[in-house]
Amino acid sequence: MGPEPRSSYGKADAGLVGLAEFAVPIGKVVGAVAKGRSLEKALKSVDPGDIPVLGPMGTMDAYRQAQRENRIFDDLVEERNTLWHHKDIYEDEANKYREQLKEMDAK
């Protein structure tokens, strides 16, 4: 199985764009948060044009969109893991039943 797909504004996209393009905006946000400002205010202080991934949508709109998409993705991954867990339980039960049948046939 390959890498997990991410949304168009998701966490993985930051790695696709050059680090230099993100150094200044990230530095502004980290610096503002370190000085006690809220993340939302810090993100508003960054010009959306400085961050190519966010583009014209605006920093907060893209941030919220990414959060929604990441929550949906995380929910899907959790659902998949739950289904795999149930599949394993059913396979274990089926194997126990097969063993019981083999024991009964052997008697």
Account of the protein in words:
The chain is an all-alpha fold and 107 residues long. The chain has one domain. Helices cover 65% and strands 0% of the residues. It is built from three helices and no strands. The chain has helices at residues 19-34, 39-44, 59-106. The longest helix has 48 residues, at 59-106. Residues 1-20 have low confidence and may be disordered.
Write a brief caption for the model.
With 107 residues, this protein is mainly alpha-helical. It has 3 helices and no strands.
Total strand count, please?
Answer: 0
Beta fraction:
under 5%
Number of helices: 3
* Rg over C-alpha atoms, rounded to the nearest angstrom: 24 Å
* Major sheet attributes: none
Uncertain spans: 1-20
**What order do the SSEs take from the amino end to the carboxyl end, as H and E?**
HHH
Structural class: mainly alpha
Q: How many structurally independent domains?
A: 1
Query: First CA to last CA: what distance?
Result: 44 Å
Mean pLDDT: 70
Helix content range: 55-70%
| Overall 3D form | rod-shaped
